[in-house]
Amino acid sequence: xxxxxxxxxxxxxxxxxxxxxxxxxxxxxxxxxxxxxxxxxxxxxxxxxxxxxxxxxxxxxxxxxxxxxxxxxxxxxxxxxxxxxxxxxxxxxxxxxxxxxxxxxxxxxxxxxxxxxxxxxxxxxxxxxxxxxxxxxxxxxxxxxxxxxxxxxxxxxxxxxxxxxxxxxxxxxxxxxxxxxxxxxxxxxxxxxxxxxxxxxxxxxxxxxxxxxxxxxxxxxxxxxxxxxxxxxxxxxxxxxxxxxxxxxxxxxxxxxxxxxxxxxxxxxxxxxxxxxxxxxxxxxxxxxxxxxxxxxxxxxxxxxxxxxxxxxxxxxxxxxxxxxxxxxxxxxxxxxxxxxxxxxxxxxxxxxxxxxxxxxxxxxxxxxxxxxxxxxxxxxxxxxxxxxxxxxxxxxxxxxxxxxxxxxxxxxxxxxxxxxxxxxxxxxxxxxxxxxxxxxxxx
Length: 444
Description:
Elements: E1 2-6, H1 17-31, E2 35-41, E3 59-63, H2 72-75, H3 82-95, E4 103-107, E5 123-127, E6 140-141, E7 144-145, H4 164-187, E8 189-192, H5 195-205, E9 212-213, H6 220-230, E10 249-254, H7 263-270, E11 278-283, H8 289-296, E12 301-305, H9 309-318, E13 321-324, H10 334-341, E14 345-349, E15 367-370, H11 373-381, H12 399-411
Parallel strand pairs: 1-2, 1-4, 2-3, 4-5, 5-8, 8-9, 10-11, 10-13, 11-12, 13-14, 14-15
Antiparallel strand pairs: 6-7
Helix pairs in contact: 6-9, 7-11
């Protein structure tokens, strides 16, 4: 197949999980024998992302118009025309190349773009965050998960005390955006990376067949290579002695340093009680990095700053346990999938899509879920390291194993997804497949 993957999150020097997911998919499709090109933002040359942006196809840096803020911060409002304008602009840019491809797969933050893609174009989008109905993408406000559905409530995310005009404009912007997204999902194929995301959208927009769930996936080969390099692939009791409670316990967190990721909340609970034989490494940058360094850095708590994927995997592979302390509803945390594949005991809150990922654990009890942060830290303090969990044969979670489902979705005729994907396995290595729909001619 000829496939165009689209994301405005690529390329940037410090790319997040969505960008890495899209590039992991691009590489896997190329390995499976498909022709893959990538359309990204024009703000930077692709070289700024280094090796992480290499996937084996052409890169088109053409998306723009999404960076402009339309004075929303200054005015304290969500501007009603802004997201509609960006969606139409993205659609025009995508359609310049649409005729050259069998399928276009969008990963980004403009879900209403599908409303402006002609119905006969084989267009798919994957929803990675809460941005289908939440204009700040996280459904996290005032340091808590937001469950409110009234568009008027969204005004407080732009102004601490919105006046009548601010509330009216923001409410209008949210209402228009949600209607456009709903129409977009009724027009084209939509994938949610967790059932939680799909259910949250239905909570706002009504119970319809909005799309299907296909969990995030990881580059399993790269993760297992990191596991092997660290020596953690050796899982037999006879060759790796369990540590006693008195020996060093190494913990690892990889997270953006801002409130939704929960690192500060975890440190407030852990730092005062952390035993002297614990060592915690935190990889990540963000708005709160300098303040958290000043407040919590110590011989036992190390801030490693931003690290590329290879460095992050190496540190995770060398740890006794991985912590994912997010306090927002993580849709489908790739960090959890990587930690499970590395064989690490993984500590997280039972929120968002994280409980759905227990199916990818190497054994029961590997993913340890807690209702609140104090319980998570209590679990950490009682943790005794043990040999890494052995990876089951034919374990799920890797992109190559999950590619068959995605290819079957690509082969469906254009239009919304009203029925689940087939469950019968398909080999992603079978080479190119024909699409039973005509492509639009370029420029038509």
